[in-house]
From TrEMBL:
This is O-methyltransferase-domain-containing protein. It comes from the Eukaryota. Gene3D superfamilies: Vaccinia Virus protein VP39, Winged helix-like DNA-binding domain superfamily/Winged helix DNA-binding domain. GO terms for molecular function: O-methyltransferase activity. Residues 209-394 form the O-methyltransferase C-terminal domain.
Amino acid sequence: MSLSTLTQLSNLISQSVATLERVAVETNTSLPDLDNPLLSDESDALRINAVAIEAARVIAAAGRQLAALTMRPKDYVFEVVFGAHLAASLRVCIESNATEMLRAAGPEPQGLHANKIAEENNMDGDKLARIMRHLATYHIYREVKPNTFANNRLSATLDTHKPVSELFSDPDNKYTGLTEAFPAAAAWTRFTPGRINLWAKSACNLWDTLKDPKAGFSNEIIDSPFHRTLGIDVPFHRWFEDPAQHKLRDLFGIAIKGFAEMNPPGTILDAFPWTSLQEDSVVVDIGGGIGAAALQLARAHPHLRIVVQDLPGVVADAQKLWETQYAGVLQSGRVIFQGHDFFQPQPSQEASVFLLRYIVHNWSDTYAQKILMHLPAAATPSTALVVVDHVLPYACPPTAVPSDVQALSASLDTAPPPLLPNYGSANALGHLLDSCMLVSLNAQERNIGHLQRLLGSCGWRLEEVVRIEGASGYYYPLRAVPV
Ligand SMILES: C[S@@+](CC[C@H](N)C(=O)[O-])C[C@H]1O[C@@H](n2cnc3c(N)ncnc32)[C@H](O)[C@@H]1O
């Protein structure tokens, strides 16, 4: 007798829970504990052990699929309808420094009354308590007794670890100098710029943009819902170069670091066999921003020379930052920053590796091609191109996708049935970013067939899809060589 989907999902959960418990014993690491905000990456088997990572992903995917299967359909759909309200509640807690105030309230689990957080922020305590309860219902914060809340495993990710007094006396620098930058990524994604809820408003304008006879079919960045909402007719990155936007640029640089931290530490180190490069080989980080990837590379591989290229304003900001973060390396000349527009011919002719991290996904095909096409002319036969973005799977069964994509997808993770092959919403980061790219830049994450065609049309042959243990949302660096 064939098992029901319910039983199959429940069996997958039981088997994976047993695996997780076994790994925790074998590796002397802790099982996840929702109430514990103090678990570090090092003590969390879910972050460091490949078997545990996979077991956890299956549990989460099966749990969510079970909810989709068993909840009343209208209840389930209404949660999505109200998704923006959950994000709005989170914004309130981020802006009011609730997480930091709960941390400062002392050892868990006594928590802090919402009135105390509200008082500090000049707000209504009853309203704040309702907002925090909404989040606690989704396991972000914990209501330890009526109207009194504590941090937990999820809310703790929003902690800037700064003294509360500093956050209130110097709110503009809340995200400056963070060691762990995830709070900046969370803040950036919803609230910037100028503290109006611009990204959220832009997302709401998606339908209007798609239905616009011109913008809806356009490949131009200025036709995105974000540009429409902000009312600017220059591309975002150019607008960003305006000195008036320097605070926003600073936050963006930190936010990008935060996005990178969503994947295991050092993913950039696994994206290419850097040790195989000879002493003084040149890595050109194109659109390298403030040099977040370059910093990791420079620290781990002192035999490399690194050129970080970006727009002039970003490069100037980045250099100041590096003076404090990695004193001396700029003076030594081992890392140099270079103002360069990647739509112009590539000036560096001696690169062993061209690195494009979070660049190709910022542009529609028309513009991604312009960036990529400049590189073969500057490459040697042994130059490699490393493109780091998310590689999106389809949500349909692998057998239903075109055969060329099937072959290329062989190295991408596929969930066991009856799970959605892409692990569903338990692994949705790539799709969330795809939506974000569409809304903000009229750009996209791509599937592997699309990326292969794009690279091929610009003189690059896709050689390898690199699997990074523990990365989420189909984060797969690609390696290509000149044709
Ligand atoms: C999403 S960020 C990625 C930064 C960096 N690669 C990283 O992974 O941390 C995109 C970068 O592209 C840069 N950029 C945008 N347009 C550019 C252009 N025309 N020439 C050079 N860089 C550009 C932006 O300034 C920004 O730093």
